[in-house]
Design goal:
In chain A, 8% of the residues lie in helices and 33% in strands. Chain A is mainly beta. Chain A has a 5-stranded mixed beta sheet, covered by helices on one side. Chain B is built from 18 helices and 22 strands. In chain B, the strands form 6 sheets. In chain B, strands 1, 2, 3, 4, 5, 6 and 20 form a 7-stranded mixed beta sheet that branches. A 5-stranded parallel beta sheet of chain B has the order 8-16-10-11-12. The chains are: A mainly beta (98), B alpha/beta (469).
Chain lengths: 98, 469
């Protein structure tokens, strides 16, 4: 659960988190957008299905793997938001592409 | 059948010096190298220069929660931005061939390849893992992660916020959160006494400016009404689908967000993957590349500077970046040895000054054994493959002599992070079971690609694709 501070970061970008439109501060990462959206998890682990949210936010831990604009296994913390970006949770391992 | 379009083969662009990372060390090295007339390439995974300490400084510079901490970085960033160099932000290095001097990167689904006569790694630090029971629960994150969220997006955790652990960053983050309107509770794991440690380690007078800043942060947080619990042991995060409580010996704190921190260690993923010789730092409990005074490594083409070389903070990083750039100019025949040594003096002096307080800080915030090697069997060590301390102890008991054997037994370090996060813990647990020093059990040997790439990105590489093992 995170909140933004629009008084100090007024510029925003519209993204879609799990299909829902959301305004997030410019400079946010896709992982930050998920935290702002308040999702209970960004992914479920491939081994036990446990829920996870980002741990490090700097590209080390890979706990923020998500599907961004249709591409799975992206490190959401390393992807800056762009207008219209679609960010979705990843359930377990990446699905084979059809 | 559709074919993936690949770029037509052409020789990669060549530079005198390639710098990996645009933090304080990388920026300072680029400035000095340009001053010596070298052609310079800087690649960085982040979208803007600054590293972690000055992350998004150009955006955050006007945020009252951060402005004073970002100010020193803005000048460095402005000087870096004005350089006549090739700067590629948002580019992820997935393969470095030290013998050929080739760098393979992916950037916006495109593959970039460059060649350089000298390569300087300024890949910075990462937080030491803090594997307590429940640390994988949603709502638990590293303190650095919350700080990055604040720097990049101005966002703060809502509800009850607890900081747990130790280190200078905790007090800095506490102050930044307070300025942003969040009053956290600090549960400190520090066990070393301040005064005695100071007297034993020294450096207090030469490091007076840093010490004054640190004490100022502590006083300010306390004046703002932040509750501080000291000497906390046996920490555990509890909650069903999300963290609800931090429990410790003799107490507990309800929380909606729990931020953990036990100091920082060099990010050695790439330096280890390319086979540089590393040494065990018994004072900072971490591996670091073996380097000479100019940052030159065991490989003739490669140097390392900044916190990726040894933890020292941003001012030390600037100095080591300058030293490595001067040495690059010397090795490329663009600067006489005497000139290099003459120009190095100012940086060496600055380095000494910047490191004055380190022995004190390292001793004061030495992590306890229960943080290095979690005692409880069910505690997850490898977050990717969900390997527990108990199963790792079993593997060590039946013959896994080091992290690479344990990886084959249990898959720890074989998940997407490639052991970046669990490496130190895996080694410490095996060392404990074998009854030997951590340096004796060794470390993971990471391999390229350093980060996942798509087949399309691999196909776009002329060189890196052939050399992947």
């Amino acid at each position: 659960m995170f909140r933004t501070r629009p008084d100090h970061r007024p510029e925003t970008v519209q993204v879609y988190v799990e299909g829902r439109a959301l305004m997030v501060p410019e400079g946010s990462s896709a992982a930050a957008a998920i935290l702002i959206a308040g999702l209970p998890a960004i992914r479920e682990t491939a081994v036990s299905g446990s829920p996870r949210l980002p741990w490090c936010m700097m590209g080390v831990c890979f706990d923020c793997l998500a599907e961004i604009d249709g591409v799975a296994n992206r490190q959401a913390c390393m992807v800056p938001v762009a207008a219209g970006m679609r960010i979705a949770r990843q359930h377990g391992a990446r699905e084979p592409q059809r | 059948m559709s074919l993936v379009p690949v770029s037509t083969p052409q020789a990669p662009r060549k530079f005198d010096l390639a710098i990996v990372g645009a933090g304080p060390a990388g920026m300072a090295a680029a400035i000095t190298a340009r001053d010596c007339g070298l052609s310079v390439l800087v690649v960085d995974e982040n979208p803007a220069p600054g590293g972690q300490v000055f992350r998004a400084a150009e955006l955050a510079g006007t945020d009252p929660a951060l402005a004073r901490d970002m100010a020193p970085g803005l000048d460095l960033i402005a000087r870096f931005r004005a350089l006549d160099i090739t700067y590629r932000p948002g580019a992820t290095l997935w393969m470095l061939d030290p013998d050929m001097g080739t760098l393979s990167l992916s950037r916006l689904n495109e593959t970039l390849e460059f060649v350089a006569d000298r390569i300087l790694l300024t890949t910075g630090a990462q937080e030491r893992p803090m594997p307590i029971p429940g640390w994988t629960l949603p709502g638990v994150m590293s303190a650095g992660a919350a700080q990055i969220a604040l720097k990049t997006a101005g966002m703060v955790p809502s509800g009850r916020v607890v900081l747990a652990g130790q280190g200078p960053l905790m007090w800095l983050l506490a102050n930044q959160l307070i300025r942003a309107g969040v009053l956290p509770v600090l549960v400190e794991t520090r066990t070393q006494p301040i005064l005695r440690t100071a007297l034993e380690q020294g450096g207090i007078f030469s490091g007076l400016a840093q010490l004054t800043k640190g004490i100022g942060l502590i006083l300010k947080a306390r004046q703002s009404g932040m509750r501080v619990i000291t000497g906390a042991k046996h920490l555990r995060a509890e909650g069903s689908s999300r963290v609800q409580t931090l429990r410790f010996e003799g107490g507990f704190e309800p929380c909606d967000t729990l931020l953990l921190h036990e100091g920082v260690i060099p990010s050695t993923h790439i330096s280890m993957a390319i086979g540089l010789e590393h040494v065990w730092d018994a004072r900072q409990f971490c591996w670091r590349p073996k380097l000479d005074v100019f940052g030159a490594s065991s490989h003739t083409r490669i140097a390392v500077a900044g916190d990726g070389a040894v933890i020292g903070g941003w001012e030390a990083a600037v100095a080591t970046g300058q030293l490595a750039a001067l040495d690059a100019a010397f090795r490329l025949g663009r600067l006489a040895g005497a000139d290099r040594d003459f120009r190095a003096e100012a940086s060496a002096d600055a380095l000494l000054q910047a490191r004055a307080l380190r022995p004190f800080l390292d001793a004061l915030y030495a992590p306890s054994q229960e943080i290095l090697a979690p005692p409880e069997e069910s505690t997850i060590i490898c977050r990717c493959e969900e390997v527990t301390a108990g199963s790792l102890r079993w593997a060590a008991a039946i013959g896994a002599t080091g992290p690479n054997q344990a990886k084959a037994y249990l898959r720890c370090g074989m998940g997407p992070c490639q052991g970046r996060l669990c490496g130190p813990t895996v080694a410490a647990v095996i060392a404990e079971i074998r009854g030997v020093a951590v340096e004796e059990v060794g470390h993971f040997r990471p391999r390229a690609p350093y980060k996942p790439i798509t087949v399309q990105e691999l196909a776009g590489a002329q060189h890196g694709a052939d050399r992947i093992s």
